Amino acid sequence: MQAKRIAVVAASIVIGIALSAFLIYAYIPLPIAVPVLNIQHIGFGTTPERFAYSNVMLLLVAFTGIAFIWLDYFLGTQFLKS
């Protein structure tokens, strides 16, 4: 159980870092734009310095938290009690 809990924490941190970096650096145009929502691409296509470090930390915490919750649920480590 302890190994599963360490794996959940480590994997959620790695997932949070990877998704945050992807969202900040990537700039992928969508084949079909959504004019009502003004969505034409995925990602910001910038650097952490220009994006502001506080926003980078907010993305990191958000993605890590979501990954932690779902990994805890799927692996059944019971970090978050029902």
What series of H and E elements makes up the topology?
HEEHH
- Strand-residue proportion: 5-15%
**Whole-number count of domains:** 1
Give start-end ranges of low-pLDDT stretches: none
Properties at a glance:
82 residues; alpha+beta; 3 helices; 13% strand
Briefly, what is this?
This protein has 82 residues and is α+β, with helices and mostly antiparallel strands. The protein has helices at 2-25, 48-51, 53-75, and strands at residues 28-34, 39-42.
Account of the protein in words:
- The structure is a single chain.
- The chain has 82 residues and is of the alpha+beta class.
- It has one domain (2-75).
- Helix content is 62%, strand content 13%.
- The chain has 3 helices and 2 strands.
- The chain has helices at 2-25, 48-51, 53-75, and strands at 28-34, 39-42.
- Strands 1-2 form a two-stranded antiparallel sheet.
- Helix 1 runs antiparallel to helix 3 (53-75).
- The longest helix has 24 residues, at 2-25.
- It starts with a helix and ends in a 7-residue tail after the last helix.
